[in-house]
Amino acid sequence: MRVTGTGHASMRIDTAAGSILCDPWVNPAYFASWFPFPDNSQLDWETLGDVDYLYVSHLHRDHFDAAHLRDFVSKDATVLLPEFPTSEMEDELRALGFTKFLRAPNEQVVELDGGLRIMIQALTSPTDGPIGDSSLWVEYDGVRLLNQNDARPTDLTVFAELGHVHAHLLQFSGAIWYPMVYELPQSAKTAFGKQKRERQFDRTWRYIADLKADHVFPIAGPPCFLDDDLWQFNDIHGDEGNIFPDQSVFLAEYAKVGGTNGIVLLPGSVAEVTTSGATTTHPQPVEEFFANKAAHLEEMRERKRGVIEAEKASWRHPEVDVLDGMKRRIEPLLEESIYLAKGVGGPVRFDLVDYDGESVESIVVDFPGKEVRTYADEKVRYRFRTERALVEHLLHIGEVDWVNSLFLSCRFSAARIGQYNEFVYAFFKCLSTERLQYAEGWYDEHERTSDAEDITLGDWVVQRRCPHLKADLTRFGIVEGDQLTCQLHGWKFDLPSGRCLTSVGHKVRAHRADASAPTP
């Protein structure tokens, strides 16, 4: 099995029975904030895109690059489609010209032509990508590969049971806006960023230990930030709280925990994977490339400056009445929402900075009141500050997912009172009736599903499944004193009260092992 690195989470998998192109991303994403690094725009995409199969793991724009898919990927390719709860991915791919689809039943092995076998695990929580993320398992002639990319399954057993895996490709770096955009003292940002960076690596080590593959390939990160306004987010400034470590940092950290089987793929690197080993060739020495990372970024910044400026010029739509547009887009969804509106539980404020960079229009999304209106000088739980032009553009194009656009762009600042509230971001990911109804149904089912099984962790008896996203706490749970941490997403719980310390809601059931269980 030949694996060609094509940048970020993208790769081409070649076997004698067929080729699969995964997650090709080349064009800037999220309001021209994210670029693939190392740069992959100069690869021979005409050749790379001439494949038998296309696999897109989910709709995040650093995985689903519509322009590149339209222009460079063969429309004769059969799309390996995850079993997602909505038809959005298929609809978007059909609009780009793809006509051949293989809808892979979730977690079922599918036999393709010539002895090529695949299995896709689809994750369908509203917090998994935009309504879904997925992983792809591939087997040919006894060689097995797992492309986990960004996905965070609670368990890799379903893959391990299919036989020993020889190549494990997975995310290790940050792909979020926290804590950089929060209006906090720099010392606090550094401390929170350091914690997040450590959690990212801890989660990666756990997945690697679970699967026990022969070779581990760090992929799906980090992006690079070439706009002058975002340049500080690149991990070249000696900031220990930077959440975007690169592949060379992964190898160094992996070595600290005993990892010796890591393989980095630069764009154009080729790994020949067999049941007995892997041989890799690179377009240039990996160590030398990352030693000169800052210079590569500077050169890339100058080369892409015109691309960024052209993108920025397209965002302004002064003809858009933002308040009216937000009312028409959001208020009908507020009326439909029960769980998300209740979960947010208060007003959320948007401060929109006008073209002059100074004047501000403040708009409130009032979740309890089910309305969008002008800010009335009340206390709010969440506040976002961004350029008016960005929201104009979102309304102009009818964007249904502000997380997969505005928030991931990092082109905003945020402040909040109290804990992180996942429902805020879940709602702004679901600005269509189809998405909202799915999310409401998911939370309804999630809330009503009982979790009767208990386990013992240290001195405590707790429910086996994490209240957040059902991670198995026998594997991901750590108890320190009276506090439980689920390492899958880093969520913390106070065991005596059951209260979630990370977000609102999500109470855990727990009691001391030497005490009787409380009466329900």
TrEMBL record:
The keyword Iron-sulfur applies. InterPro entries: RibonucZ/Hydroxyglut_hydro, Rieske_2Fe-2S, Rieske_2Fe-2S_sf, SCP2_Rv3818. It holds the Pfam family Rieske. Keywords: 2Fe-2S, Iron, Iron-sulfur, Metal-binding. Residues 461-520 form the Rieske domain. This is Rieske 2Fe-2S domain-containing protein.
